[in-house]
Write a structure and sequence with these properties.
The chain is an alpha+beta fold. It is built from 18 helices and 13 strands. The strands form three sheets. Strands 5-4-6-7-11-12-3-13 form an eight-stranded mixed β-sheet.
Length: about 425
């Protein structure tokens, strides 16, 4: 008989899945596999194989975030902040933000500091994780993928092989790996470098279908590949068909009605629901955190790409300096006291309200949360229901984007009044 408590958490894991892959990689019976449920990345659990060890629940980062009352706070005194980019023009251009991560991984492999690196690459219309051991294969993994990668399904492989590795991961993935090392599920020296990506959410698979169908007006079956975001700053995604390539620019274009970061994404309506529970968007447990350099003087002039680089450990800072000294990257030091990242305050409201809704129910949430927080969460509940399919089908993209922009302004006004 299956443990009732496990069944409860499995339901939450399926609904709140962010596609990190941890449960798949740590299950001793390989009873868990990735799937999609109503347009969202999720998991399938074969209960006939399950031995009720509970590892999947214990190390699910979203269950952890759900039970964490306050956002994580970083008190690390070793933080240093830089902007930077790969010195090799091709590497810089084909990266999402200056190719810094690829340049560092290239350095680590060429100098034999690690035996391999865990990364993800765009493959067909999805993303796939892989352990790369040579620079040639590393080039294929450049760019940012804004959809679930299930990278930690390779934990079992990381555990069984020899050597030391670097991991490029989202906050939920880095947090989980750190916990697995703490309990010695993974050898302490197996992962030498944790290279973290800043992340406010990953998009649900339905969103890619929406962009192809509604924005580009293409049948999904005609598409054989969707690239990562790359090709300079601010970059773009190429949608490839037998008849030619189509472009989804990184920023939304009001004239064409096409863009990856449009009002739907900015309001996090395209997100995996569990991402709204995350308390670690800045990836504070990594050795180094990377993201777009949202600094006016860089954004206005840069056409190739630059990274915001935050080193959080002595090891991370040393890696940046070594890569700089060997000519792989160019960096500039920034004033640590300034704020070089988006605060995303609205996510904190979503986080608090959604956590209460899941744990305490609708009635208590309505009684205890202010009207602005509840009002802001309504579209998310609508988009995770069957109502989403109807809305996306009957409302043209441009009109939907305009309506969403108006809503963003409205909730912003409400929350500050």
């Amino acid at each position: 008989m299956i443990n009732i408590n496990l069944t409860h958490y499995w339901k939450l894991m399926k609904k709140l899945c962010v596609g990190c892959g941890a449960c798949i990689g740590i299950c001793p019976k390989e009873a868990i596999s990735p799937t999609e449920i109503k347009g969202y990345a999720s998991i399938n659990i074969d209960t006939s194989k399950c031995i009720q060890c509970g590892l999947c629940v214990k190390f699910c980062p979203i269950i952890s975030y759900l039970n964490t009352p306050e956002p994580l706070k970083n008190q690390n005194p070793n933080i240093k902040i830089f902007t930077g980019h790969a010195t090799e023009t091709e590497t810089r251009y084909y990266g999402a933000s200056g190719g810094t991560v690829t340049a560092l991984l290239t350095y680590l492999l060429e100098e034999s500091e690690v035996d391999g690196v865990l990364v993800a690459k765009a493959h067909g219309k999805k993303a796939t994780p892989q352990l790369v051991t040579n620079v040639k294969d590393l080039k294929d993994t450049q760019g940012s993928i804004y959809f679930p990668t299930f990278s930690l399904k390779l934990i079992r492989q990381l555990r069984s092989i020899e050597g030391s590795y670097a991991v490029v991961g989202l906050p939920c993935q880095i947090d989980t790996l750190k916990k697995l090392i703490e309990i010695k599920f993974l050898p302490e020296n197996r992962i030498k470098y944790f290279l973290g990506l800043r992340c406010y959410h990953v998009n649900a698979p339905w969103y890619l279908t929406y962009m192809i169908n509604k924005m580009l007006k293409l049948p999904v079956d005609n598409v054989y590949q969707v690239t990562a975001r790359r090709y300079g700053w601010p970059g773009k995604v190429l949608v490839k068909t037998r008849k030619g390539n189509y472009v989804i620019p990184h920023f939304y274009d009001r004239k064409t009605g096409i863009g990856l970061w449009n009002p739907l994404a900015l309001l996090h309506l395209t997100a995996q629901l569990g991402c709204l529970l995350c308390t670690n968007h800045e990836n504070i447990n990594a050795d180094i955190t990377f993201g777009d350099a949202w600094i006016p003087k860089i954004v206005k002039k840069d056409k190739i790409g630059s990274s915001l680089i935050i080193t959080r450990t002595k090891r991370g800072t040393e890696l940046i300096r070594k890569a700089e000294s060997t000519g792989r990257i160019a960096v500039n030091t920034l004033n640590r006291e300034k704020r070089y990242y988006q605060s995303n305050e609205e996510l904190k409201s979503f986080n608090k309200t959604l956590r209460m809704l899941i744990k305490e129910g609708t009635a208590k949430t309505i009684r205890q949360q202010n009207i602005a927080n509840i009002f802001a969460l309504i579209p998310h509940l609508a988009f995770t229901s069957t109502l989403r399919q109807t809305l996306l089908k009957i409302i043209p993209p441009k009109i939907l984007m305009t309506a969403t922009s108006t809503y963003i302004k409205l909730i912003s006004t409400t929350s500050h009044s």
